[in-house]
Design brief:
The protein has four helices and six strands; from the N terminus they run αββαββαββα. By secondary structure, the protein is α+β, with helices and mostly antiparallel strands. Helix 2 (56-66) packs parallel to helix 3.
Length: 149
């Protein structure tokens, strides 16, 4: 792994440690790499009304949008698993859900980048990397509304 990818995965794992997941006990962290090299994180935030739950990717994208950096996304790393002390348990990489793929696409189109999406297992032993276009082919976004080229 590259140093940047190691750093991105570590940031996502750290974010997952701060997840609020009292219902599923499944912690997810996301780390966004911006074009300038900054990393912004988010964690899942559950709600008793499940439909109001925020995924880690959504929380992180909201942070960059609120700072005016929506067009600066370069890559994202996602880590998830069940907490066990300071560790996460889980051997399968966590992929973004459909809603998060769409949320990521909005930022990716604004960034004019087919971003890399790094999906990591909770135990850190497996990482799969995709282009967002592989995870969300024929995506609908700002370009379809004529808002960007």
């Amino acid at each position: 792994m590259s140093e940047t990818l190691d750093e991105l995965i570590a940031a996502a794992r750290d974010a997952a440690s701060r997840a609020y997941a009292p219902y599923s006990s499944f912690h997810v962290g996301a780390a966004l790499l911006l074009k300038n090299g900054d990393i912004v994180t988010g964690a899942n935030v559950e709600n008793a009304s499940y439909g109001l739950t925020l995924c880690a990717e959504t929380a992180a994208i909201a942070k960059i949008a609120n700072e005016g950096w929506i067009g600066e996304l370069a890559e994202v790393a996602i880590v998830g698993g069940r907490p066990d002390g300071d560790a996460l348990i889980g051997s399968d990489p966590v992929n973004p859900c459909g809603r998060c793929r769409q949320i990521l696409n909005e930022a990716a189109e604004r960034s004019k980048t087919d971003i890399l999406v790094h999906c990591a297992s909770g135990d850190g032993k497996e990482i799969r990397t995709y282009r967002l276009s592989q995870l969300l082919p024929a995506a609908f976004g700002p370009k379809d509304l004529g808002l960007i080229d």
